[in-house]
Amino acid sequence: MKILHFSDAHIDIISQGKLDPSTGLPVRVLDFLKALDKIVDTAIEERVDLVLFTGDAYKDRTPVPTYQREWGKRIKRLSEAGILTVMITGNHDVSPALSRAHALQEYETLSIPHVRVCSRPQFLTPQDLEGLPLQIAALPWVPRSGFMIAQDNGLPEIDILNQKLEDAITQLITYWLENRIDSNLPVVFAAHASVEGAQYSSERSIMLGNEVSLSRGLVCDRRWTYVALGHIHKAQNLNEGNHPPVIYPGSIERVNIGEAREEKFFVLVHLDGKQVSHIEWKKLEGRRFIDRSVRVERQENFMETILREFPPQKDLEGAVFRLVVDYPAAWEKLLDEAALRRHAEGALEFMLVRRPQRELRVRLPEGVLASDMSPLQLLEMYLASIKVFPEEIQAIKSLAQEILWGGELEETKEVL
């Protein structure tokens, strides 16, 4: 049996920037769609038995019709090829409001042939999988709002609520392991969730804050045949060299410059009976990302020093390129941004991050020690040294006062 596992498509997460003249779609959206095409092509060419998608099709649960159409075209190809496709919903696919439809709702509503959506926790048997000799314990993203309504016991603190939700999920998975598994068949645990010890990349910035994590022991339980995970964009096997494989394939394209050095994958899982015989990591080439930084320490040849950090034009062509430049603030006028942008014209996108460094040492009046001054006095002296406007100094001091003492006057504090 062959299973193709991919996750975190996010096909419309970058819908700004240059447009493709032939389709009218953003070039970066086309990058994600090309990766999705590669995945669908491979599924058909390899004649896989199952395509398993572990969540986050779009940027959010309200994709525009154009992107729904593009996603639908690819799912339709799998359906027409007779390949069973199971999709579980991720945090970007669902609404915090329990009654709202999720982003993959139409596949449930219209009963598309060979397509099944898991928008709630469920244990799938061969009867649910068109006779495929397989079991899937499916755990989509569980919104806290729905759990609170089910509890019907007020609004606990977020950490208490997370613990209750984590306990409930643990109990459910334990029940599946102990009561639902047919030991004669392979069983896949498929979840859109964080797992303790997983390595994050830059997707932390697009997640929804504090969240529940599954325990490593639970996902690494040897009763699973294979563990298919989604939610974390960095490709990894959390149980390397051991049984079962616990796989985050990662996102299908780089979401931002923070993922510049990460490779992107989907996986082909080969089952021999109830065991995984081997796993193929299929690399997705995607858009080239280049991230470089330079510190200029000599005024002579200022621009030449920066330009030496540019990649060759052939590597720059069509790439997303970020250049971080550190230099003394006094040399600000030497930086010719227009010249740098001309040099980067071949890039799809050029991000210049300027970091002028200022002398931060503040000299205290003669005979005065730092310990003799209050925090607000030290803050005011520092702000004045970096030429902050007086009215801004007062606003920052007020904010600092609020943070330090809850708005009480400094003079009322005897101990700092």
UniProtKB/TrEMBL annotation:
Residue ranges annotated for the Calcineurin-like phosphoesterase domain, each copy included: 1-234
Molecular function, one GO term: endonuclease activity
One Pfam family this sequence matches: Metallophos
InterPro entries: Calcineurin-like_PHP (IPR004843), DNA_Repair-Maintenance_Comp (IPR050535), Metallo-depent_PP-like (IPR029052), Mre11_N (IPR041796), SbcD (IPR004593)
Alphabetically ordered keywords of this record: DNA recombination, DNA replication, Endonuclease, Exonuclease, Hydrolase, Nuclease
BP-aspect Gene Ontology terms: DNA recombination; DNA replication
Family the entry assigns: Belongs to the SbcD family.
Binding partners and assembly: Heterodimer of SbcC and SbcD.
Chain's role: SbcCD cleaves DNA hairpin structures. These structures can inhibit DNA replication and are intermediates in certain DNA recombination reactions. The complex acts as a 3'->5' double strand exonuclease that can open hairpins. It also has a 5' single-strand endonuclease activity.
Name the record gives this protein: Nuclease SbcCD subunit D
